[in-house]
Amino acid sequence: MLAVTGATGFVGSAVIDRALKMGHSVRALTRRDQSAREGLEWVKGTLEDEEALANLCKGADAVIHIAGLTNTPDVTEFEKANVTGTANVIAAAKGAKVGRFVFVSSLAARKPDLSAYGASKARAEELVKTSKLDWTMVRPPAVYGPRDIDMYDLFRSAKLGLVPLPPGGATSIIHVGDLASLLVTLANRARLKVIYEPDDGREGGWSHKELAQAIGKAMGRRRVFAPHLPANVLSIAANADKRLRGDKAKLTPDRVGYMSHPNWVSRSDHAVPEDIWQPQIGGEEGLRQTAEWYKAEGWL
Hints:
Radius of gyration: 19 Å
Strand content: 5-15%
CATH topology of the domain at 2-145 and 174-199 and 267-280: Rossmann fold
């Protein structure tokens, strides 16, 4: 029995699909009513609801804690969602004597000084480390795949032949299906108190230019114009986005902080051992599949 938070999100829904396919029973937290599904039990509540979290964890063999806030115009919300929320899940897991705890963090936690988001994830990591649970943490790089709404904007821009980039640097990526497979696998592996930084298997990651061209290729373009935008220009764009979209703005000043950092490549000394997990979907193939999904669903 796997207890999953963040189950209705992009990564969480992929984890549920993978867990059910592997024969696990799943109990998942949700804010809203969801459709019934064999092998899946929904628990209505939030990360602030102690009773719901207790029900979620009761009798579970492992908890996969995915839920968290990645973007908000109000940076004070990161503390409540990512730090207090994680503390609440830890307390519920300990109260239910859950044997395994898998926490989804972020590469942004490596540089907590760059953003309030990264700082909140770093604080949440410390809570997990000192929890006395049997934990493993995963810091995913940029996650993409069908149903993703974050990297979707890059595909939409590539369709027009333009992919604006942050200042020069490199990043790793991982397909959501591979990440889901890793998380479910780790839920079944005891005594792994380590932090993993998985990726698509591309050594050294992708330079921003390489990734832009790969997305362009996935969209059927031989070349795309991919200019690097200085941090001050991104800041101006973030302020404009806030004026235009308010609380729904995707580019926030906090995001500009870590977007401008030159190195979000998963570190080899934090790689997942090959006998535990290996990525199955290479970047170019995964980007092509993702573009096809967007087109088939009418997103592009």
